[in-house]
Each structure stands twice: as structure tokens, then as C-alpha cells.
Design brief:
alpha/beta; 7-stranded parallel beta sheet; 33 helices
């Protein structure tokens, strides 16, 4: 007898059974199929569906028996065909279950498909996707299910590319750090039919790994896989250059940045590529001669960009451009020219943001105009803080006192945490606990701006300036009626920012001439802390082969700040103080920074064995404790320390600083004044050397300064965070009253 196969048109029994199945009446559905088999035993589809119904009722053994009965007495070719039909029936129901979010049943059905056809790669991929939705996935599942072997064996034509990409994205979103995630990414390469889809998924995952998980070396490996499909893709090269540099593989980071520059055709892309070259050279720390030519080229490129005044720059490129004036104050204390360039670049970027997000920007303008005209007064004021740094970061350590002392009766505090870190960060968790509403995780400035508007924030304070493109993009849309910059670098120059919070000392009186923001000067200091936690030191003089009676100087700064002119002044101080040693600490390429200082030391007549290079330490409390090894701290110029200066003063160690004109060159000055200390403040290079030598030779003076600093903890504005918070809050209230009284 010839067997009958799946009919082209559903029979009466199938129609009735399907209706029962959809509404979950499995018993009645089974009855219909049993009747159908009794009437037409040769139609095999009835067996497949009846077995499915029994499976759905948890009767797995009965289901398998039913399928075996349907297969009985068939020839091998027939059995193969019937098996394919059965799999199709199961797949259809698995897909239906997935579409109605019944993932557990979909997973169970696909497990049976796997038993019937263990080499079905697409079914295995579905199982991985379902296990992620069920949150039962572990990185080991890919190996246990044989996915890697199947991807190696199956020709690309047999693999559902869209499904493969969906699963890859799900795996990377769920747990990109597991070793199997990188292995899956690599295994996908032979099956890629649309490189752009693969690249977008992998580059996004690499960014998350680099910036949220803070593992740039792993991010490099993912980005290199994307690069293998398009070695001139500007987005990939941009990410790779940053990852290599953050992973302290500086030579590779510089090489990739130079490659990006060479393949960039648009002026805006060349500007950012050149910025990345500078970033690599300055991160390494010993390439100041190379940097000199790159910075001159950069100034020329920025001038061309400003003259061009394009209003159609792509969003991603605009975000990059926000950062491109970052290094100017590290080279020269020339605030008038530096800020003019920065202001013009920021203005250009804002125009472009408000062009590509035109509807959003206009909606915000209208909404704020309505709020103001309605005369509604918010009580309490809603203050929003926007930052990437409210965590274990120098900004995070300093801003916490403001959050702690805020008057919650007068102010509602909102936190917008950019790129919320996936690492264990107790300080980040503390910040989240301090706000009435925390918005975290987004890496889109447009999304963050929308949230700020929905929350009806009155005053928005950003703490990143041009160090974070997402912050700039959000601020450029003007999501809050009053916007101000505080603490995290210098003012951004964005026209949408109303105020830059400073104090009487950190900016000279003439500074308003070159700031687009209104400078709001707090009465004493723009920052105050109640102190710092200090751990157990790990440095000893005898471990560093330094005599106990030696004079120890230290400079603990990033390589960006080690301007060769100031480094030379520091070595002149060492040369002028017998039995002195210089400790140099900070992230940099070890070989290049040593060569940099050894060459200067030789030129200044300082023996190389008087220099010590210290590695970074993992914990801030240890870093602070280790400062105690020093007799004198030598500050950098034209870019001073900030957090490091506060830590030095808290540890009661004398400091020598060179004061300039720009914000970055006056941080240590305002902090020393607000700690009640003038000894060590130098207004010229000569004074810097004189103070350095005098403090090294005069033990009594050092002791007096240390004592004054210890006493200042009880009296000085720098160590009175509660008073500082009241002054900030008063400023907020005055800003709001000024806003309500204005008629613009």
C-alpha cells in the first residue's frame, strides 16, 4: 500500500485540533487526532501532530511511541521523508511558542528536535537563543550543544545567517566576557554574508567590553575580528586605536590611528584621526618631539574645520569632534587662543547636533518656554547630575561630598550615569543610592536628553566637559532650562551651557573675556572634601634603595601632563638638592617614559640612579598612603594636578606648583590658598625651581607646612564640604531666580 503524506489542505480533524491546541485544550486536540488516525491511518501527519500534543501534555514516552508507530514498516527513504515532516511540525509549534513568549515550551520542543536531528545547526542556534531568553544560558552551552563543531563542518548555505547574527548578538549582550563568546564570534566569520551586520554587532560588543567592563585587551580581539572583514572601516579603526592605547599597547594604538588618518577622506575624520594619534603619543609619555609636529598639524586642521562650518556632519563624526580640542591646554598655557578654538569647535558641534536632532531640540525649546511662561515654581528644585565619572574615578572621589550633604528638603537629586560600569564599583553603587532617581546604562546622548526632559530637571550639572562625547551631545540639545559645567575638566564651550562654576582663584579676573559660559564664582572654593580614606602603604625607602636621610621628591601624574619644559625644571630641582631622589609615577609606556626622563636627567647633570619609576597601584587608598614616602611633591604645568593635589594636601605633604592663566594651570593654586598655604606657590619658572630647592633643603620649613596643613583640616574651606554644599545650593537657587526673572 502506498503511504499518504501531509495533505495540502487541512482536514476537518486538523482544523478542530488546531483550534483546541491554540486555546490549550490538549486533551480534546488529542481526541480529534485519534479519531483522524482511526478513520485515515495512512495519513502520517496525524501521527506527528498527535505525538506533539502528547509531548505538550508532558507524555514524552507516549509521544515517541506515537511517532514510531507512524514510522513503522517504512522504507529507509520514506522514514527520512517522514522524519523531515515530523521535524517541520515540531519546528512550526516551537516558532509559535516563541512568538507568544512561551520560551520554556519552545525550548522543550527544540530539545526533541535535537534528539531526532542532532546535527541541525539552526535548531542548535535556536536552543542557544531560547536559553538566553530563559536566563539559563552559560557560556559552556555552545560547546555542550556542539555549535562550534557544526559551524566548522556545515557549509554557509546550510546556516541561517539572520538567525546566526541574532544569536551572536544575544550571546554578546548576555555575556560577552565568557571565552566562548569570542570563540563564537570567530566561528561566525566563514558564514558572514553581510559584513556590515556582523561588524555592527561585534563593534558594539567591543565598545561595551572596553568602556563598561573596562577590559580593553579583550575588546581589541573582538574589534580585530571585525577588522578582518573591512580593514579600512573608519569606525573599527577608531575603536581599535582607542582600545590598544587603553590596553597600554601604545605602539599599536599609534599605528592604527595613523592608518585611520591615511584612509580618512573627510576633513572631520582627519581631525579626529589626528587627535587619536596625539592621544597615543601622549599616553605613551615619551614622544613629545613627535607630538610637537602633530599638534601643529592639529591646529591647522581645526582652523580649516572652523572655516568650513559644515552643518551636515554625520552624528558619529560630530560626537568624535567634541573631543578634538582636549589636548590644547596640555601643550601651552594660552587660554585666550585655546578657548577660542575650543569654543568654535563646540559651537560647530552643537549646530550639527541641533540639525540632525532638529525635532527633538525644537520640542525642548517649546516645552521650556511653556514651563517658564506658565510661571510654575518648582519646589523643591530638581537638580540633575550628568556624568561618566560618578564611580571610582578622580571626579567620583571629589563630588561625593556634595551628594552626601545635599538638602533633600530643598532639592530633588537625579543622577544620569553614562555607560554604567559592569565592574564591581562600590562608589558607583553609593552614588546610585544617593539620588531619588538613577538613570543608567545608556550610551546615547539623545536618549539621555529625552530622559532629562521627561524628568523636568530644572538645573542640569555636567561633570565631564569635552572628555565624554555623550555628555556633550546631551547638553547640546539643552534638555534643561539651566545648564552648568562643574569640576570635571574645564568648560566645554557649548553655547547651550549657561554657567561654568569656579571660584575667586582658579580663573583670573579676565577669564570671562574668553569664556562663552557665564563664570559663576563661588565665594571661596569650587571644590571641597571632608578628607580621604587612606590605606596601608606598600612603598618603603629601603625597598627602593633610597637612604633614610635622603630628600624624596615625587610626581604622580598621567603622561599627558609631563610637559618636557616642566620635567626639566623638576630635574633642575633634583640637581640643586644633594642626596635627593625623584619618584615618577603614572600611567605611561615604561620604556618611553624612562628614556624621556633619562635624557633630560643627563642634560641637567642628574645621575640616572637618582630616579625611580613606580608602577600604578590598584587601590586609591594605597596610592594615598604611598604619598607619605615623599618629602615634597612636584606639581605639573601647564596642566596641574587636581585630585592628586587634594590628596597631597590631605596627607600634609609640601607641594610646589607653577601657577598660570588657564583653569588647568591654577587648580593647585586655588586648593593651596583654600587650605591656608602659600609656601610652594610659584608664579614663574624661576620661583618653581627656588621653591623646590628650598623645600628640599629646609627640613624645618617642611615640618611647619605639614603642621599648618594638619591644623587646616579643622578650619580651612577646602576641608569643609558641608559649607561648600550650602554655597553650591545657594548658587543653584540664585541661578533659578535669575532664570525666572529673565525675559529672553
Amino acid at each position: 500500500m502506498t503511504a499518504k503524506y501531509l495533505p495540502t489542505k487541512p482536514t476537518y480533524w486538523e482544523q478542530q485540533a488546531h483550534q483546541c491546541l491554540v486555546r490549550g485544550d490538549y486533551a480534546q486536540a488529542a481526541n480529534f487526532y485519534e479519531e483522524a488516525i482511526e478513520e485515515e491511518p495512512d495519513i502520517k501527519s496525524y501521527y506527528w501532530h498527535l505525538g506533539l500534543i502528547l509531548l505538550l501534555q508532558g507524555q514524552e514516552a507516549e509521544a515517541q511511541t506515537t511517532w514510531l508507530v507512524g514510522m513503522a514498516e517504512g522504507e529507509p527513504e520514506q522514514v527520512d521523508l517522514w522524519t523531515a515532516e515530523l521535524i517541520q511540525v515540531l519546528q512550526t509549534e516551537a516558532e509559535r511558542r516563541g512568538n507568544v513568549s512561551d520560551y520554556s515550551m519552545a525550548w522543550a520542543i527544540r530539545q526533541h528536535i535535537r534528539e531526532i536531528s542532532p546535527a541541525d545547526i539552526n535548531n542548535l542556534l535556536h536552543l542557544i537563543g531560547l536559553s538566553i531568553l530563559l536566563e539559563t544560558y552559560t557560556g559552556e552551552d555552545l560547546t555542550a550543544l556542539g555549535v562550534f563543531n557544526m559551524l566548522k563542518l556545515e557549509p554557509p548555505s546550510e546556516v541561517d545567517f539572520e538567525l546566526l547574527m541574532q544569536v551572536l548578538k544575544s550571546v554578546l549582550d548576555y555575556d560577552s566576557l565568557h571565552p566562548s563568546s569570542l570563540e563564537l564570534t570567530e566561528a561566525c566569520l566563514p558564514h558572514v554574508r553581510n559584513p556590515l551586520v556582523f561588524i555592527e554587532i561585534v563593534v558594539a560588543a567591543s565598545a561595551e567590553i572596553a568602556h563598561s567592563a573596562l577590559i580593553p585587551a579583550l575588546a581589541v580581539r573582538f574589534a580585530e575580528l571585525a577588522r578582518s572583514l573591512d580593514d579600512k572601516n573608519l569606525g573599527i579603526l577608531q575603536q581599535l586605536a582607542t582600545y590598544y592605547q587603553n590596553a597600554q599597547q601604545y605602539d599599536l594604538g599609534i599605528k592604527v590611528a595613523k592608518l585611520r588618518y591615511s584612509v580618512s577622506e573627510e576633513l572631520a575624520d582627519k581631525v579626529f584621526s589626528n587627535h587619536q594619534i596625539m592621544r597615543g603619543l601622549m599616553s605613551a609619555g615619551g614622544y613629545w618631539e613627535d607630538v610637537a609636529s602633530v599638534i601643529e598639524r592639529h591646529k591647522s586642521l581645526l582652523d580649516l574645520l572652523i572655516v568650513q562650518q559644515s552643518t551636515s556632519i554625520p552624528p558619529v563624526t560630530v560626537q568624535n569632534l567634541f573631543l578634538t580640542s582636549f589636548f590644547l591646554p596640555y601643550f601651552q598655557d594660552d587660554p585666550k587662543n585655546n578657548r577660542q578654538t575650543q569654543n568654535q569647535v563646540s559651537q560647530l558641534c552643537q549646530v550639527n547636533v541641533q540639525t540632525y536632532a532638529k525635532e527633538q531640540a525644537e520640542k525642548y525649546r517649546q516645552r521650556q518656554s511653556f514651563r517658564k511662561s506658565s510661571g510654575s515654581v518648582t519646589k523643591p528644585l530638581k537638580i540633575g547630575y550628568l556624568s561618566n565619572c560618578l564611580r571610582r574615578h578622580s571626579v567620583g572621589w571629589l563630588a561625593r561630598w556634595l551628594f552626601q550633604y545635599h538638602d533633600r528638603d530643598k532639592f530633588q537629586i537625579y543622577g544620569y550615569f553614562i555607560g554604567n560600569k559592569k565592574t564591581q564599583d562600590s562608589l558607583q553603587e553609593w552614588y546610585v543610592s544617593q539620588v531619588c532617581k538613577a538613570y543608567k546604562g545608556s550610551i546615547s546622548g539623545l536618549e539621555i536628553a529625552e530622559q532629562i526632559v521627561e524628568d523636568e530637571i530644572d538645573i542640569l550639572i555636567e561633570l565631564d566637559s569635552i572628555t565624554v562625547d555623550i555628555t556633550c551631545e546631551a547638553m547640546a540639545l539643552k534638555p534643561a532650562p539651566i545648564q552648568a559645567s562643574w569640576l570635571g575638566w574645564d568648560a566645554s564651550g557649548l553655547p547651550a551651557v549657561d554657567y561654568f562654576i569656579a571660584d575667586p582663584y582658579v580663573l583670573p579676573e579676565s577669564a570671562q573675556d574668553y569664556y562663552t559660559e557665564k563664570i559663576w564664582r563661588l565665594p571661596q572654593t569650587y571644590i571641597a572634601v571632608d578628607g580621604f580614606e587612606v590605606g596601608t602603604p606598600t612603598l618603603r625607602r629601603d625597598h627602593l634603595d633610597i637612604p633614610s636621610d635622603a630628600v624624596v621628591y615625587i610626581s604622580a601624574q598621567k603622561s599627558y601632563k609631563r610637559h618636557p619644559h616642566t620635567a626639566r625644571l623638576q630635574l633642575k630641582i633634583i640637581a640643586g638638592v644633594p642626596n635627593s631622589y625623584f619618584l615618577i609615577k603614572g600611567s605611561a609606556d615604561e620604556e618611553s617614559i624612562k628614556n624621556f626622563f633619562f635624557q633630560l636627567a643627563e642634560e641637567e647633570g642628574v645621575a640616572a640612579d637618582r630616579l625611580r619609576f613606580l608602577p600604578e597601584v590598584g587601590l586609591e587608598v594605597v596610592h594615598r598612603a604611598n604619598l607619605g614616602i615623599a618629602d615634597v611633591v612636584l606639581d605639573t604645568y601647564p596642566y596641574n594636578g587636581a585630585t592628586t593635589t587634594l590628596e597631597t594636601l590631605w596627607m600634609c605633604i609640601p607641594l610646589v606648583t607653577r601657577v598660570g592663566e588657564q583653569f588647568a594651570a591654577r587648580n593647585s593654586y586655588t586648593m593651596m590658598i583654600n587650605a591656608g598655604i602659600t609656601e610652594g606657590i610659584a608664579w614663574t619658572d624661576e620661583e618653581y625651581i627656588e621653591w623646590g630647592i628650598r623645600l628640599g633643603k629646609d627640613t624645618v620649613l617642611r615640618q611647619q607646612i605639614s603642621w599648618k596643613l594638619r591644623q587646616s583640616r579643622q578650619t580651612a574651606p577646602l576641608w569643609n564640604a558641608k559649607q561648600f554644599t550650602r554655597e553650591m545650593e545657594k548658587a543653584y537657587e540664585q541661578m533659578w531666580q535669575r532664570y525666572l526673572g529673565s525675559h529672553d
